[in-house]
Design a protein that fits this description.
By secondary structure, the chain is of the alpha/beta class. The chain has helices at about 5-30, 45-60, 75-85, 105-110, 125-130, 140-150, 170-180, 195-200, 265-285, 290-305, and strands at about 5, 35-40, 65-70, 95, 160-165, 185-190, 205, 225-230, 230-235, 240-245, 255-260. Helix 1 (about 5-30) runs parallel beside helix 9 and helix 6 packs across helix 7. The longest helix has 23 residues, at about 5-30. The protein starts with a strand and ends with a helix. The structure holds guanine.
């Protein structure tokens, strides 16, 4: 049977480390890290995600500032709020939940966030830093995927990684992080031909396609590590609604490692957001510049040594 890699357990561990860092900041600088979360409109999934992020932030001692704006908010009003949050010294991280209602220019909104407070890592300055391997804030879901991989892979160099999905939020940054680990990376997307054949070449598969049970058992090489980023609500044959990933989990017996859905990447995304918020607060108070993904592998070495 494949090993099930529990993201919820790793996330709990990371949250404990972040909580210790928060206490340390309070002790050394008299500062409590603060996270502002902005939600426009009534999208039900976004409401659930935002509530989860805020609750976890509070639980580990991060101050959270919630800004819920009505559906008919104008882009200018949202930009005005971001300008205020950029200038607020109590706010170290700013997150604008996506998707925004379609009349907003998401790139304009994301570009307005101070890169030093961009805990989502979506600002072009942070995207650029990631692409040249420099220190910056790294998008939360990709960072969570990397931390999960760090739990089970010691030597990435030369491994073949296939990333399914080319989104700015997951696929592209995951590919850059795996390149930084010296994997041979192939990014696939909806127009890719022969996807099953390509996936069969992979030692590592990261799937963020938003397509329930897309990756079937016979696509996956025996022993491969499979990271399932998908969160899809489906109606099961018994008529009940349930959440499934982008991987046919019941067909993965021959894989080496698989992340579950729920309880895999999802909790890591939240934990990495809080870790990024702590890091943004530390940077604002003159603490070191080091890549979060390096911290992930250092953390792994420390655990191995302990
Ligand atoms: N919507 C889906 N994933 C994300 C994320 O990681 N950050 C934000 N801001 N919105 C999202």
């Amino acid at each position: 049977m494949a090993r099930v890699l529990r993201g919820d357990l790793l996330a709990a561990d990371l949250c404990r480390t972040v909580a210790e860092g928060v206490l340390q900041m309070q002790g050394e600088h008299g500062v409590t890290p603060g996270l502002a979360v902005v939600l426009v409109g009534q999208d039900p999934a976004s409401q659930v995600y935002v509530a989860r992020k805020m609750a976890k932030a509070t639980e580990i001692g991060i101050r959270s500032f919630e800004h819920r704006l009505p559906e008919d908010t104008q882009e200018g009003q949202l930009l005005e709020l971001i300008i205020q949050l950029n200038a607020d010294p109590a706010v170290h991280g700013i997150l604008v939940q996506l998707p925004l209602p379609s009349r907003f220019r998401a790139d304009k909104v994301l570009n307005a966030i101070d890169p030093a407070k961009d805990v989502d890592g979506f600002h072009p300055v942070n995207v650029g830093r990631l692409s040249v391997g420099a220190a910056g804030l790294i998008p939360c879901t990709p960072l969570g995927c990397l931390m999960l991989l760090d739990e089970v892979i010691q030597h990435f160099r030369g491994l073949k990684a296939v990333v399914i999905g080319k989104s700015n939020i997951v696929g592209k940054p995951v590919a850059l992080l795996l390149l930084e680990r010296e994997c041979t990376v192939e990014v696939t997307h909806i127009h890719t031909r022969n996807l099953p054949e390509i996936v069969r070449t992979a030692d590592i598969v990261v799937v963020a396609a938003g397509s329930p049970r897309l990756v079937r058992g016979d696509w996956v090489k025996p022993g491969a590590v499979v990271i399932d980023v998908g969160i899809n609500r489906i109606t099961a044959p018994d008529g009940r609604s349930r959440i499934v990933g982008d991987v046919a989990a019941d067909e993965m017996g021959h894989a080496g490692v698989v992340t579950p859905v729920p309880g895999g990447v999802g909790p890591m995304t939240v934990a990495c957001l809080l870790s990024n918020t702590l890091r943004a607060a530390q940077m604002a108070h003159g603490e070191g510049e080091c890549r979060q993904d390096e911290l992930s592998s250092r953390r792994r070495s420390k655990v191995a040594a302990d």
